[in-house]
Amino acid sequence: MPLIRRQPCVFSGHRLLRNLKLQKINSLKKLKINYLLIGIVTLLLAAALWPSIPWSGKPENRVAGIIARGELRISTINSPMTFATMNNKTFGLDYELAKQFADYLGVTLKITVRQNISQLFDDLDDGQADMLAAGLVYNQERVKNYQAGPTYYSVSQQLVYRVGNTRPRTLAALTAEQLTIAPGHVAINDLQTLKAEKYPDLAWRVDEKRGTTALMQAVIDGKLDYTIADSVAVSLFQRVHPELAVALDITDEQPVTWFSARDDDNSLSAAMLDFFNNINEDGTLARLEEKYLGHGNDFDYVDTRTFLRAVDSVLPDLQPLFEKYAQEIDWRLLAAISYQESHWDTQATSPTGVRGLMMLTKNTAQSLGLSDRTDAEQSISGGARYLQDMMTKVPDTVPEEERIWFALAAYNMGYAHMLDARTLTAKTKGNPDSWSDVKQRLPLLSQKPWYNKLTYGYARGHEAYAYVENIRKYQISLVGYLLEKEKEATEARQLAESYPVVAPDELNRPTTSILPFVAFSADGAFERNRLIAPNTLVQAPHR
Question: What is the CATH number of domain 62-152+257-291?
């Protein structure tokens, strides 16, 4: 019987299950692709709509961004007028205003110090600074690209030279070899206009490495003939370097302001305006202007030079005593008071009988328990105590930082006459608690139509005015001079540290091996050290 091969039995349900499984896998693959496409589209839409979504985290304006960051970033230049440090204390008009503006915004202040004006505006362009606070002048060229803030004082641009050198009477014949300007200086625009309209032969060059202060120093050192600086910077520089002289003004008064980036966001400008309105109304701005700008413009070359020579020759022996007895005031101010009184002559005597470094009367000395007015320590300690007593009598309504000026006026002409000056200030619609207002009335105390109406009568108010102003000038000169000496010492130390340490075995090597150091210039050393860290970041101290 033939063998019949049996066909395998195939269950049709198996094929159905396999087909269903394959369909499911294909469906899942399609679903994954769809989800991927949906995800990509969603991300693209989110990226496109993100700036307009309120919850995206982007600040709605510039001020909101500063507040969210927690710090106000400013760029400035190192100078006594803008930003400087001495003995771990920071000062400068722009610094104090910027610090108060940061407090107004409720944030900390972060300061970047640059070497010239061009670098400042680079910071705005690169988004490295929120604003510039560096005594910058408002002009049409700058406001084309940057937003200006409120004006807080004004300056003129001056051509300066060294005393003893040829004084230019006009800009007409100045050459690029004679006149050097700092990069980004506002005077460049003024010179371009003068050249086009009046002086076709006028020429100058721009030093890309040095700022205005460094160029003024170069004029003093005889390395440059002329440069241009603003009137306030020149005035302050002369207090330390009396050899710097003004040849002529090349501009009228120009407003000084802060600058920020220019765009459609005006929130920072609005905040600046509100801030300045506030400090103008409460008198803060007037006090700061008086502090930094109220020293007067009557510069005396001979007197300043004589004073600075005394700082070098006489002050070192007296400084420990001023530091010991200064109490609540800065010892440099006490030293300035003493110089105004006696020119630091322990044996000084006036026709009225006052004697010693602080020119004390016999009765005052006795009341203070002093036995010898010509003894340096007794005189300084007694004068400091007497001045402190005057400060405690000044009415509490006078701001703390201005009490010293009222006390000095009382020290000079008597406490009662100082009260009369305050009364007269109030009667003539001034603020009796503002030294700026009171000092303007001091000369009226010697004029009969005015002193006849006052309680204590005639006083030499004009002398008291000159007395306080002279002290302030000496203080500015002393602080600036000591600051410069400190800077020179620091640079000398850095220069010394820039040289490699010489090993003992190198000392016996041939002298030819040190020839490269013979050709190494000090200027080169300073420049190299500067390039190691060209920009300094300073965190403003908390007050």
Answer: 3.40.190.10
